[in-house]
Amino acid sequence: MNRDMLRIMLSIPGVLLLSIDILLILVLFKESIPVLTYEGLRIFTEFQWNAAEDPAKEVYGIIPPLVGSLYVAILAIMFAAFFSISLTIFIQEIFPYRARFAIEELINVASTFPTVLYGLWGLTLIVPLVRQLAVKLGYVNVTGASIVTAGLVLSIMIAPYSTAIIKSVYASVPLSYIEAIASLGATKIERAIIVLKMIFPAIVSSLLLGFGRAVGETTAVTLVIGNAYRLPLDPFLPASTVTSLIANNFGMATYYKYEYSALMFAALVLLITSAFFSYIGLRLANRSVRIVRGEQ
């Protein structure tokens, strides 16, 4: 097999994947045209979701669930940042070296768990705890299913993913840097703080990649968020995200003239949002690796 033929064969999978991604965007855009023609820019200003048998009475607005998606994802990465950074310091600086492999493998396995397991775990454990906390804060008739519950569940779900990235970059810091820090008499915690400052772009990138995953999560969020269509101003009240909106309404969407198209447009907006943050995260990850290696 000559070199040109090998190059062509190796490029086929990449071209195929890129074509599928482009086709996905085109299909979502095509299916969104009916509701964009009907609603226009009102789809960004309406604060209700009303599927009616009379097409003239149908009203669709994606801002409340979109804000809900961003709200949940932001809370998730805030909690995940605490979990991931703490776990990285514990593994790299405190945990016995010979036992690190076991906990690292446990983290890797946890990142592969089906998301429905996290959702069921959150439903049975986190929801009651949040309900008790909300009652102590003065809330009445709360179920515990809320924005903050979804954020906590998602943070546990993405923490292994973020931890793996942060730990990998942390471990790639040159030994000469570590020895120089130790020669100054720094304690383990002081050394960890210095190294974390060095790999700060990697921390941000891991959280942005986690944000891209969290904003698109469906099953776990749908189980614990409460699925109430409202603008999520209070984190202890039920709300909805774009993914939970799609999951709850897609089954009956074809019975109405525009709801199917509205859900497709919501999916398109979600895709663009997730892709944007994932792209920024990947760029920062590459930059952080170059900085640690001294290439920039």
From TrEMBL:
Bilayer topology term: Multi-pass membrane protein
Keywords for this protein: Cell membrane, Membrane, Phosphate transport, Transmembrane, Transmembrane helix, Transport
Compartments in which it is found: Cell membrane
Domain ABC transmembrane type-1: residue ranges: 66-281
GO cellular component, one term: plasma membrane
Major localization listed first in the record, in broad terms: membrane
Biological process annotations from GO: phosphate ion transport
PANTHER family: PHOSPHATE TRANSPORT SYSTEM PERMEASE PROTEIN PST (PTHR30425), PHOSPHATE TRANSPORT SYSTEM PERMEASE PROTEIN PSTC (PTHR30425:SF1)
Family stated for the protein in its record: Belongs to the binding-protein-dependent transport system permease family. CysTW subfamily.
Protein name according to UniProt: Phosphate transport system permease protein
Organism: Thermofilum adornatum
Organism lineage string: Archaea, Thermoproteota, Thermoprotei, Thermofilales, Thermofilaceae
